[in-house]
Amino acid sequence: MNSATGNPSSQSLVDQARQEITQIVREVAAASHEPRKRAEYFRFLADRVLRAMAGHGVVIWTRPLQGDSTAGDYVVEHRLGRVTDSALVDEAELVHQCLLAEVATEGVPVVVPPTPGADQIDVPANPMPYPAAIVPIRIDPSTSLPEGLIEVFLDEGGTAASQRGALRFLAQMSDLAGEFLRMRRLKKLSQLLDATDRVDAAIERLHRMTSTAMIQAAWVDAAAELLRLPRVALCRVDTTQPRIVAVSHVDRIDQHSEAAKAIRLATGHSLLPQHGLWFADCQDAPSPSDSDDAESTPADSETVRSASEPSWVVAAHPDSHWRLVGFTSDETEHLSEEVYWGTLNRLLVGGASAWTAARRIESVPGGRWFSRLLVEPDSTSTDAVRNVSVSSRIRRRRANRSRIRKAATWFAAMVVIGILVCLPMPSLVPVTGVIRPVELDTYHAASDAVVDSLHVDHGQMVRRGDLLATLTSSDLQEQETSLLGRQAVLMRQQEQVNQTLMSRPSAQSNSESIHDGREVEEEIESIRRQLEIIRESKDRLVLRALRDGRVDAWRLQERLANRPLRRGDDVLSVIAEDTAWVVDARVPQTRLQTVDNALQSETLTADVGTAWSSKMNLVATAERFGPIVPDPTDGTPSVVMRLSLDQPPKLGDQPLAEMPARVTLHCGHTPVGWFFVQDVVHWCQVQWGGYF
Question: Where are the transmembrane segments (predicted)?
Fold first, then answer.
């Protein structure tokens, strides 16, 4: 009976504990969906976990948000209780950190038994005197490492069933914490997306403006509105004295006021890199240690001395001419770090870009007036934002005037373009070519030989018959020596035959001697003819000028002295003294019809200039078309056109054969419109001409 009466009491205690735990779970679940700060939520979570599990202490670890963080980078987000990681020192702290890295890598909840005195820093262990229950906190299951860990130090002597129950409860708490972090991240991303859209819209409005003054005013107004600041000033520091060019929601600026002096003084602060910008805190206020984010934004400060004094100054880079000076107050609504810094960065870059574009338009004569005709005014411009009481009828009237002005401008532009398209302009066809003389004597090696001596240099004047070069052939010399030896032997044989005829009077012996003598004479005659051919070949190896002219052979000595040549190899060239000069121009096929029409109508003229000269000081006359050859630059087919020069090209006293030239063909006049579309028309005719 006593045991029976005790069971209801223990059962009621169990039910009461279950109700308390259920209530704690409900409280944590409700807190996970409330808009709380991160530190406040983790403080609440640690308190409820410690109450529910009756542990000795709770430590919540989180991983930095950087993408390159590892399993060993977990830091304490919040700790509560009498037994926490703060009691760990030296090797025990490293061993405990190794344990956290192991649990984070495995990603499963565990209860680690105590191992007091563990000192091997590369072996994961629990150096505390109490068992530690550790569960991961995940936002995205696909990530390799969890975003955080919850560690609870339990009582000693717990059973396996109690440890499993503790792990189940702790895993439920980690799921709720992950849900809180997930919702918080989604909220941040939503805020960042909304802020990005609003910044893009503001920058788009800035780029639609064509006046630098309007851009400056709209720039600071947009900064004050998007950053939720009471005042923003824009300064330009390209001169020795910083100049205030715009202040948000202020029409006129008193440059001599105390506030203006404070703004100019703020621009002199030393800027330090921060979040991709260069930032300086003008009030030197310490950042709050319990802020919601890891780092503070420019608007975060515990004490703001005065809303009329600048709080911070920021620039896109230290060499930028623009400085944004911000004013904050106690009522300033704080934005998240990503939204604040991202908005500042995009405003600085986009505003400077819009101002530079408008400045370029203003620097063009009449550019501001022309741009105002073409650009439709923004219905959400700065003036409209300032004065929300403007009636819809006035806005419609402005829009109608803008559309009429835009239509009239486009009509006038089309008329002007039509007139310009029909205006005649000179039809010029620039081509390339080669200048060469008509009478050019090129001397070749008559047979395989070696250059024995050279008697002229490049550019030297020669007369007809002057010695140019002497070539020697060892083969001809050997043949001549062999033939001369054979000729001497045959001459002795002929003498012997003659003596035999004189010493033998018989008819039979005389007939035999006469026959032998004839064979010898024929062979001697053959050798004589061969020797004459060899002497002629040797004479041809001695090169002499065929006419008066100038030698065209650059680096003659270096190229040919004592060099063996094959039969037909070039030795040197001589340009005739009174030769005519021509240009072989390469005309692209796309311009061939234009050039041919001008040639047939006898209106084609040409100016020729050397490739290195900017002057077209030579006049040429078209003669005829030549073959189709590939262009040496890009390989496209072109037609050779020969042009005769009225006077020879000169460069001192040196010859200029095979010289690159620039040729401008004057083909009369053509409409401006045809000049711009003729290539498109030609391409269409080539591609689709077979279908029509």
Answer: 407-429
